[in-house]
Amino acid sequence: MYRKFIKRLLDILLSAIGIVILSVPMLIIAILVRLKLGSPVIFTQLRPGKDERIFKMYKFRSMTDAKDEFGNLLPDKERITKFGRMLRSTSLDELPELFNILKGDMSIVGPRPLSIFYLPDFTKESRRRHEVRPGLTGYAQVNGRNNLAWHDRFRLDTDYIDNMSFWLDIKIIIQTGLKVIRRSGISLRANKDYTLFRVIEEEGNTNMQTKEIGSNFAMETSEIPSGIDPDTLNLPWLPYGDKTFTLSGRAAIGLALSDLCKNHEVHTAYVPSYCCLSMLQPFIDRHIDIVFYNVSEKNGNVSYEIDVNKKCDVFLAMSYFGLSEPVSDDILKIFKENGTVIIEDITHRFMSRISCSSQADYYAVSLRKWFASPAGGCLIKSSGSLSLKANGESSDVMMKKIEAMCEKRDYLSGAEVSKEEFLEKFYEGDRALSKVNEDIKMDNVSAEIIANTDINDVREKRIANAKVIYSRLSGLSIKPLVVSPDWKNACPLFVPVLVPEDERDSLRKHLIDNGIYCPVHWPEVMGAEVGLRSCELSLICDQRYSVEDMERMMNCVAEYCAKKPALIP
Known about the structure:
Blueprint: H1 2-21, H2 23-37, E1 42-48, E2 54-60, H3 76-79, H4 82-89, H5 97-103, E3 107-109, E4 135-137, H6 139-143, H7 150-163, H8 166-182, H9 194-203, E5 213-214, E6 242-246, H10 249-261, E7 268-272, H11 277-285, E8 289-298, E9 301-305, E10 314-318, H12 329-337, E11 341-345, E12 362-366, E13 377-381, H13 399-412, H14 419-435, H15 444-451, H16 455-473, E14 479-480, E15 495-498, H17 501-513, E16 516-517, E17 536-539, H18 547-563
Parallel strand pairs: 3-4, 5-16, 7-8, 7-10, 10-11, 11-12
Antiparallel strand pairs: 1-2, 6-13, 8-9, 12-13, 14-15, 15-17
Helix pairs in contact: 1-5, 9-14, 10-11, 13-14, 16-18
C-alpha cells in the first residue's frame, strides 16, 4: 500500500509544501545565480527515471558557460566558481528538484538519478535502481562517504528498493537534513566515472596470454596519418546526395533535424524501440516527443511492429547488424505520402549491396563503427541541398582517442603499455565526442584513414568471418538472430545471437576471461518495450581478425554451450 499509493501522495504533499515554504529563498538564490553565473538560472540535465524513462531534472546552475577558442565548453573544474561550490556543498542547487517531485519524475527518497550516459553500462542487478522513481535523497546518500565504491552504492540502492517503507523514508529524510546542516558530504563522488569503472572492470586484465578480440580499434599504422581535409572526401560507396562529414552519427542525425526544422515544425518522432541513446539524444535536445515502434525477432529475422496510421513529423528507420531485413520501402512510402519526413540511420547496412531505402529524405551514418578511425560520421540529403553543414574545426577533441589507439597498437604488439591508461583515454575521447557541437566536422586523421581503406577488402573479410561463425553455430544451442542471411547482398557489422538474459552475462564473462570482448547492443530501455535487448549478444566478425581468430572465439562459445545445453530463448 505504501509503495503503490501512499508514497506518491506524500511526495505530492511534501513537495508542494516545500515549494511554498522555500519560494522566497529559491527566488533569492535565482537572483544571485543570474548575477554571478548568468542565465539560464535553471540548469536541466537528462536523467533516467522509473523504467528508465528519460526526464529533465532541474537544478540551479553552479557553473559558468566559459568556452575555449573553438567554442567548446571548458572542463567542469574550470567553470565552477566559489559561489557554485557553495551551492553544491549546501545542496541548495538541488532545490528545483522539488518541481520534479511534484510532476512525478522523482520522489523525495529513492536512488539518486545518474547520468543517462551510464545507461548502456548498468548490469542486470544495478538496473534494478530504475524499478522506482529516483530520489532527491537516498539510502546510499546517507550511508556512504564521498569515495563510496560503485558496487556498494548500487547495493544500498537495491537494499532500499527491497526494504522500502514509511519509517525507512522518514529515517533517510532526517539523516539527510542532519548531513546538509553539517555539510558532511551528502553528494557522493566515486573514484572513477561509472562508465570508465565498468570498462576497466571488464577489460582491464593485463595478463592475457592470447590475442585479444574485440573492443576499440587500434591505430593500424606505426605513425599517425598526417590527415586530409574531410571536405575533399569522395566516397562513392555512400548514397547519392548532398553530403557533410561529421564527427559522429549522432551529430549527423542532429544536423538532419536542424536542417529539417528550418522549414518544418517537428513535434513527434516515431522511432525504433531497439536503438541507442545517442541516436535519440538529438530528438530529446530539441524537445521532440518520442513514440516507439517495437522491434522484435520473428521467424528468424528482425520484425517491425509499425502502426502506419501513426501521426508523426519524423520517422526514424534503421536495420540491424548488416544482416536483417530493413523497414520496407512500402511502409516508408505510406508515411512519406502523409507528410512525414524519413530519416534513415544506415550505419548497419551501408556496406551491404542495397545500402539504403529509396524513400528516405536524409541518411545518417556512423562511419567509425566500421573503420580504425578515431571518429567519423556523415549526413546525406537525398534531394536538394543541406542548409547546414559541419564546418567547425575539431581542434584537439580527438587527440585522446588517437593517443589511445596508438597505445593499444603498441600494447597488442607486446610493448610495455598500461592498459588501464589507454582505456581511460578511449573513454575520455568518446566522452568528448558526445559533448562537442554537432557542426564540428570530421577530423583530418579520420578522413585520411577512411579514404585509404579498401572497402571491398573490408566486406570480404567480414563476410568470411561471419560465415565461420554461422557454420559453428549450427552445431550449438545458441540461435542467430538472423537465421538465413543473404550473403550475396549483406555485409555484417556483427553477428547477433540470442541468449537468455540470465545466461548472457555469464557467457559474456566467459568470453571476456578469454580476451574476447563481445558487446551487448543497446541495453538501455528508455521506456520502450524490452524486446531484443534482453537476449542479444553481438559476436565479433570485423576485418581485424582472421578465420583462425573466429575459430578460437567459437571454440570458447562451444565450451560454454557444452555446459549449458538449452540456451535458445
